[in-house]
Amino acid sequence: MASRLNPYISFAGDARQAMEFYKEVFGGTLRLNTYGDFGQQGTPDADKIMHGMLETPSGFTLMGSDTPPGSEHTPGNNFSVSVSGDDDTELRGYWEKLSAGGSVTVPLEKQMWGDVFGMCTDRFGVPWMVNIGQPSS
User: Fold this and answer.
1) Which domain holds residue 12?
2) What gap in Å lies between CA 46 and CA 25, rounded to an integer?
3) 58 shares a domain with 22
4) Is 136 helix (H, G, I), strand (E, B) or coil?
């Protein structure tokens, strides 16, 4: 397998819902492993997500988990997940789903550099950037 860089997002107990939401947005195969799957059956964290991975038909990989037991969930503001390409229909579909129930900080519209771009924060507090470039000839 080639090296890859992908986002890994920590959630405050709603990783299952968030990862299932991202599967609805992007499609693909979602694998979720709980703490109970790895020896913590019968604990309050048994049903929480220890590791989740979504692999999409477009080649995206998104990983996430609930914050480990005993650790504090401290969301940061120093990251965004960026989705870009030149398939206008596909990317607008992602935008519509990601921004629904969240907040839009930059509307998805043509920008000074020529691409259509927008920024939103989804209903789970994750910031997204969507950039629709011009198809190459």
Assistant:
1) 8-66
2) 27
3) yes
4) coil
- The 10s digit of each residue's pLDDT in 78-107 is 678 989 899 999 999 999 999 999 999 999
Q: Where are the alpha helices (DSSP H) in 27-133?
A: 88-99
Q: How many domains does the chain have?
A: 2
Of 121, 123, 38, 135, nearest in space to 84 by CA:
135
Distance of alpha carbon 46 from alpha carbon 90, whole angstroms: 36
Q: Which one, of 62, 60, 6, 8, lies nearest residue 31 by Cα?
A: 62
Whether residues 91 and 58 fall in one domain: no
Question: How far apart are alpha carbons 36 and 43 in whole angstroms?
Answer: 8
Return the bridge partners of 11, or none.
Answer: 66
Q: What is the DSSP letter of 58?
A: T
User: Does residue 72 sit within a domain?
Assistant: no
Q: So what's the pLDDT on residue 82? A: 87
Between 36 and 40, name the one with better pLDDT: 36
The residue whose two tokens read 């870009």 is 84
